[in-house]
Amino acid sequence: MSKPHFVRAFSEEERTAIEAGLRAPDAFTLRRCQILLASAQGETAPVIAAQLHCSDQTVRNVITAFNADGLAVLKQGSHVAHHLSHTAFTPEAQERLRVLIRLSPRTFGQQSSLWSLASLAEVSFKQGLTTRLVSGETVRATLQRMGIAWKRAKQWITSPDPAYTAKKSDETD
């Protein structure tokens, strides 16, 4: 079992801000202040979590963040994932991707003559545009940053009639 994790000692400014946070209008700041004060009083993460109806990992995360960043832990951050999809394609790879989408997928051994985001991701990896296989969403976001609006290709209905091509060309002549 690992030793309990506690918050570091507060400075006078930090203690004042944390105590003021107990009267904050938003629940995020209030909960974080409650966690920090309980930890400063010697309560362990599981006990604090039980009192505040949250997970003990949440309590440990708050304590760790406060010990590293101080009062910044009281401000709610972004909910966007921490990984950055724009790092998947370098600027050179983006230009190669711009060229790639104008070529036929069959050139690269794909079954369809239409690009899908998944097939673009696969071919991009095989061609060395990315260092790892990325998702279709990463490819779409990259194309969007490049100013290219991606829309799924439409599958056109063709007739099962063997003479369809001949009949079609006769009507248009």
Describe this protein's structure.
The longest helix has 14 residues, at 27-40. The mean pLDDT is 88. It is elongated, with a radius of gyration of 28 Å. The protein has helices at 12-21, 27-40, 45-52, 56-69, 91-100, 117-126, 136-145, 164-172. It has 173 residues and is mostly helical. It has two domains: 12-74, no CATH class; 85-145, no CATH class. The N and C termini lie far apart (84 Å). It is built from eight helices and no strands. It is 49% helix and 0% strand.
Set down the secondary structure blueprint.
Elements: H1 12-21, H2 27-40, H3 45-52, H4 56-69, H5 91-100, H6 117-126, H7 136-145, H8 164-172
Helix pairs in contact: 2-3, 2-4, 3-4, 6-7
- Proportion of helical residues: 40-55%
DSSP strand (E) fraction? under 5%
Report, as a whole number of angstroms, the end-to-end distance: 84 Å
Largest sheet: none
Over all CA atoms, what is the radius of gyration? 28 Å
Number of self-contained structural domains: 2
Mean pLDDT: 88
Number of strands: 0
Which structural class matches the secondary elements?
A: mainly alpha
List segments where confidence is low: pLDDT < 50 over at least 5 consecutive residues.
none
Shape: elongated
Précis, in short:
This protein has 173 residues and is mostly helical. It folds into two domains: 12-74, no CATH class; 85-145, no CATH class. It has eight helices and no strands.
